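A further point concerns the way the authors explain their paired sequence and structure data. Since the whole study asks how a given chain folds, the encoding of that fold should be made plain. A single example would do more here than another paragraph of explanation. An entry of this sort, consisting of the sequence and the corresponding C-alpha cells, reads as follows:

_____
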Amino acid sequence: MKKIAFMFPGVGSQCVGMGKYFYDNFQIARQTFEEASDTLTVDFTRLCFSPSEAKELEKLENSQLALLSVSTASARVFEQEIGIEPRYCLGHSLGEYSALCCAGSLALSDALVIVKERGRILSRAASTMGGIMAWVINLETKVVEKVIAESSGEGDEIFISAYDSPTQSSISGPRDTVVRVGRKLEKEGAIVYPLKLSGPFHCPLMAEAAEKIKPVLQQVTYRTPRYPVIANRNAAVYPEEGVVDNLSMQLVHPVRWQASIQFLLDRGIDTAVEVGPDKVLKHLMKNNTADIETFSFENAGDFSLLKKTFSA
C-alpha cells in the first residue's frame, strides 16, 4: 500500500485552462466551481478558462482565488474517482489554504472569503513598499544565508523567504536591494530572477499584513482535519487550534518546503501527488529527493495514469 501525500501549488502555477478537464468531465468539479462562483459572485469558469481573461488571472487577488478553487475541485475529483486518501496534506504558500480545505479543516466558502481579503491586504501592503521576491537557483542555501547576513550587516533589509530545496530558495525585500543582493548571489554562481509576485512576501516586512489578517481568520470556524496538514512556517503538523497563528505567521516566516519534504520522508511517505495546475512542486520534489515518487494531477493523461497506478 502506497503512503501518499497531497501537495497543493501556490501563486505562479496559475494558467489559462487550468481545471477545465475536470470541469468538463466530473460533476463534483462543476459543483465546486459553482460553489466558488456563488460564494464570491465571480464567474470562475470564465476567469480560469477564457484566454481573454489571462491578464485578470495573473492579478494576485484573482490568481489566489482561482488556484484555491481549481485545487479544491481537483482534490475532490481525486478522492471520488481514484479513491485513495492521503496520509498528509501540504501546500506551498497560498497552497496551504487548499491543503486545509482538502483536509476538511476549512470550508471552501470560508477559505475563499479569507483568501479574497488576504489578497487585498497583501496587495495594499505591497503597493506601499515596492518590494519583490526572486528565485535563487543552483546555489546552496547556506551560501545564500551567508550573503544575506553580510548584506543585512551592511544595512540592507533582505530576507530568505523560502527554502525550497538544497539548491533553490527565494529572497524578499525592497526592489533595489533584491537586485543588488541578487548580483552578489550571481557572483557566487546562482541563477537569480524575479517571481511573478508583486511584493516581498514571507518575510518580516509583512508584519503589518500578518496582524491585519488575524481578525479575518478569527471569524471562521475550523474543524478537526481528516488528514494532518503540514505548516509552511515550521514544517510541523498543525496543532488542533493552530490555524489562525499558522496562517497569519505564514506571511512573515519563510516557506520551509525542504524541511516539509524531509518530514514526509521521516514518516515513510513514498508517493506524492501535486493536486492542481502545473508541475512546480513535482520539480521541487526531484530537487529534494528521489525516494518519493511524484505525480501531477491536472489533465486527462494524469487522470488515466493515476487511475491505473492506484488500482494496480
User: Anything to note?
Assistant: DSSP finds 14 helices and nine strands in the chain. The mean pLDDT is 94. The chain has two domains: 4-126+204-311, 131-194.
